[in-house]
Amino acid sequence: MNLSKTEEQLMQYLWSCKKAFMKDLLDAYPNPKPATTTVATLLKRMADKGFVAYKLYGKSREYYPLVKKGDYFSNHLNGLIKNFFNDSTSQFASFFTSKTNMTTSELEELRKIIDTQIKKQQK
Question: How do residues 52-84 score in pLDDT, each as one tens digit?
């Protein structure tokens, strides 16, 4: 299950805070800040989807992520590869390296990363 763009934005704030009360999340937004009720609705939707949970302290809720940022990004990226590149990582890599204006030094760095990963997998 994926998050909407507005839920993703809020989740980014929560990932960076690790845990936060409503006031902390509202403070993270740039001006103009969303209404408290808007953020509360987003948090409820995200909790219903299993992305966040909270601890009660009296009437206050301290929210925390249930999904790690890396796991969410990995699932999201794998979905893009499946839906847009026929589930082919090589098609994705070809698109990524040819359409993103990477410099020669960035491509060389990417080659080093790939070579390192190949060596790890061969062990």
Answer: 999 999 999 999 999 999 999 999 899 889 999
